[in-house]
Amino acid sequence: xxxxxxxxxxxxxxxxxxxxxxxxxxxxxxxxxxxxxxxxxxxxxxxxxxxxxxxxxxxxxxxxxxxxxxxxxxxxxxxxxxxxxxxxxxxxxxxxxxxxxxxxxxxxxxxxxxxxxxxxxxxxxxxxxxxxxxxxxxxxxxxxxxxxxxxxxxxxxxxxxxxxxxxxxxxxxxxxxxxxxxxxxxxxxxxxxxxxxxxxxxxxxxxxxxxxxxxxxxxxxxxxxxxxxxxxxxxxxxxxxxxx
Length: 244
What we know:
Oligomer: single chain
Number of strands: 4
Low-confidence stretches: 13-24, 42-53, 131-135, 152-158
Mean pLDDT: 76
Number of helices: 6
Distance between the termini: 25 Å
C-alpha cells in the first residue's frame, strides 16, 4: 500500500517536469502496468478477491462495535447481591461493546470476520483503483497538459487524498481487532457462553495476560440477564449498524 502511494506521488512530480516527453509515456505505461500487477496480487491474496470492488461502500466507522470484558454482579429483584453456596458473590463476565450490547464470543468472532472482509475490500479499492486512475488519465493525454486532462488527474489525486481518512480508520480498526481477538480467545478459555467461570481454579486475574477482575462492575438482576441471553441479539452477528 505504501509503495502504491509513493508511486502516485512520484508520478505527480514526474508529470509536472516532463509531461510532453516520449520518455514520460514509456514511464507511465510501466507504472500503470506495475500498479495493475500490484493490485492483482493484492486481490489474489484477499479473502474477498472474487468480488468486484466496484460495489464497495464506505463504513460507518464510529458505529463499528469494540468489545471489552465487563463484570456483572447478579442481584435479585430487590437489588440484593446473590451469592454462591460458599458465600461468594455471584458474578458474570460478558463481552460488551461501547453501546452496551452483550454478545456471545461466537457472535463477536463472526462480526470480526465481516469487519475484516469489509476493510480488505476498502483497502483494495482505494489502493488499486486510485493509482490506476491517475496513470490512466495521464496516458490518455498523450503528454499534452490540457486543462481537461489536468482537471481529471487532479480529481483522481483528490480522490486518493480523501481516501486517506478511510485508510487511517482501517488501520486503527485492524489494530483494535487484534486486541479484541486476543480478548475473545482468553474469554473463551475462562468463561462459558453464559459468562460463568469454566473452572473455579482458573485465575481470572491473569488469563493469557488479561485481567478479567479489573474494572468496575455493574449490577443486573438474574431475570434480566436470563432474558438478555435468551434474546436472539445475544448470538447475532448483525452488521447493519455500521454498513451503508
